[in-house]
Write a structure and sequence with these properties.
There is one protein chain. The chain has 283 residues and is an alpha/beta fold. The protein has 2 domains: 81 residues, GMP Synthetase, Chain A, domain 3 (2-Layer Sandwich), CATH 3.30.300; 170 residues, Vaccinia Virus protein VP39 (Rossmann fold, 3-Layer(aba) Sandwich). Helix content is 25%, strand content 35%. The strands form 3 sheets. The chain has a 7-stranded mixed sheet with strand order 9-8-7-10-11-13-12, sandwiched between helices. It has a 4-stranded mixed sheet with strand order 1-2-3-4. Strands 5-6 form a two-stranded antiparallel ribbon.
């Protein structure tokens, strides 16, 4: 049952129209997006969520979008107070606090997709790795080596703990730092690179020529309006070309809604050629 169905006999019709149908659950923490127009109804909405999901210990209301170098949103506590939790996905467990680090359970199917198409023997780089969900699932599924880079020290601490909790210490290396500093110092090339932060990924494409293999795959995430879908692939390919790479799009799809008619997208590209550009560096 979605939120609108749960509240159809409680809220007025005009209130139901502006209420978001879905909400996110991370472990035993729920995250709601309640419009300001429904401020006076937030506790009724919270009660409906708790009634439908009795395992929840905490309910948060998202007050501000993800921002800052640590990619953390702001929240209001509507119920409970303990925000650290254990999220479970595809046999993996992640300790996480959504008020201190970025984590979205809505991307679980995308993490599963990448883990399914990755191949044994690959060397993989995850930029903006968060608490490790991409890296850890890949390591659990395939015989790969993964480096995850994360700048948020709290997320990095959780990432290291999650690597141990999921017993992938021999496959996953956690590096705490800014990808702008870390990536040029790695001294190796990768078969697959994941750039899962859609608001900033475009600012880091310049790092790729020095670390991606010819024939390698890049999973590039971005935000775009639905009216831009027809040119999305060509726009991404142009961005890579400007930074010294010839690529071809092999797949793209919506991976979540951001605002009305504005979505998060993933564009998978295969690198056909790497040539020198103004930002190119070698080892």
């Amino acid at each position: 049952m979605n939120l609108k169905e749960a509240l159809k006999d409680v809220l007025r019709e005009e209130e139901l129209k502006i209420l978001r149908r879905g909400f996110e659950i991370i472990g035993d923490v729920a995250i709601l997006e309640i419009p300001e127009e429904l401020e006076s109804r937030k506790h009724i909405i919270t009660e409906a969520v708790l009634k439908a999901h009795r395992h929840l210990k905490t309910v948060l209301r998202k007050k501000g979008e993800v921002s800052g170098i640590y990619r953390v949103a702001s929240y209001e506590v509507l119920h409970g107070g303990e925000t650290e939790t254990i999220a479970k996905e595809f046999g993996c467990r992640y300790r996480v606090d959504p008020t201190r680090v970025y984590f979205s359970s809505r991307l679980s199917s995308e993490r599963d997709r990448i883990a399914r198409i990755a191949e044994d023997g690959e060397n993989i780089l995850v930029m903006f790795a968060g608490v490790g969900p991409y890296a850890i699932l890949l390591a659990r599924r395939k015989d790969v080596k993964v480096i995850g880079v994360e700048i948020n020290p709290v997320a990095c601490r959780y990432f290291k703990e999650n690597v141990k909790m999921n017993r992938v210490e021999e496959k996953v290396e956690v590096i705490c730092g800014d990808v702008r500093d870390v990536v040029p110092s790695l001294g190796k090339r990768f078969d697959r690179i994941i750039m899962p932060s859609p608001f900033i990924a475009e600012d880091y494409v310049y790092l790729l020529p020095g670390v991606v293999k010819k024939g390698g795959a890049v999973h590039y995430y971005t935000i775009a309006g639905e009216e831009e879908e027809g040119e999305l692939s060509s726009r991404v390919e142009d961005k890579f070309r400007d930074e010294g790479m010839e690529v071809e799009t092999v797949f793209w799809r919506r991976v979540g809604s951001y605002a009305p008619r504005v979505n998060r997208y993933v564009v998978d590209v295969r690198v056909l050629e790497v040539r020198e550009s103004k930002n190119f560096y070698t080892f």
